[in-house]
Amino acid sequence: MLTMDISTKSFKIISTLEAISFLVLLGIAMPLKYIWDMPQMVKIVGMAHGVLFIIYIIGAYIMKEKLKWSWGTLGIVMLCSVLPFGPFYAERKYL
């Protein structure tokens, strides 16, 4: 069992940063890599996004426990993390 405490406000910040990093990865870094042969941005943004994604998933589980979400709600919130703009939706609907 996780004993770490995370506030809803902190999770909202993580959610927003995760969503922005995903959009930057898809909209800026990937085109730079595949259209203009500049892969450096994918390494930087990809690593940041990966770390934020993991923190988001852990935070979502903690929010499930804290806010008494059902497993279905947790599944939707986690699914939103792999969709562009998804974390923005999850943040507004479930937090």
From TrEMBL:
Q: Which GO terms describe its cellular component?
A: plasma membrane
Q: Where are the transmembrane segments?
A: 12-32, 44-63, 69-90
The answer to whether the entry has keyword Membrane is yes
- Is Cell membrane tagged as a keyword? yes
Q: What is this protein called?
A: DUF3817 domain-containing protein
Write down the Pfam families for this protein, in alphabetical order. Answer: DUF3817
The places in or outside the cell where this protein is found are: Cell membrane
Q: How does it sit in the membrane?
A: Multi-pass membrane protein
Q: Domain DUF3817 spans what residues?
A: 9-94
Q: Which InterPro entries match?
A: DUF3817_TM
Keyword list (alphabetical) reads:
Cell membrane, Membrane, Transmembrane, Transmembrane helix
Q: Which organism is it from?
A: Marixanthomonas ophiurae
Q: What is the lineage of its organism?
A: Bacteria, Pseudomonadati, Bacteroidota, Flavobacteriia, Flavobacteriales
Chief localisation class: membrane
